[in-house]
Specification:
The chain is 57% helix and 0% strand. It is an all-alpha fold.
């Protein structure tokens, strides 16, 4: 991650942790910049598929 992008992802992760947003595994306060990047990537894939999550197969189910 480059510096500016990493800074933004860390800021989002901090906000999610402060708001006590659960991760996919049901944990509070576990958000990292990498976790935020992964979630944003999955959202992008879902939007690119026209909202058809099933087209992503087990990747989205096992998140």
């Amino acid at each position: 991650m480059n510096g500016q992008k990493g800074h933004r992802l860390r800021k989002i992760a901090r906000e999610l942790n402060d708001r006590r947003i659960l991760t996919a595994r049901g944990k509070v306060g576990s958000w990292t910049a990498t976790a935020v990047r992964n979630v944003l990537g999955r959202i992008g894939k879902i939007e690119a598929s026209g909202g058809r999550e099933r087209d992503l197969g087990p990747e989205i189910i096992n998140a």
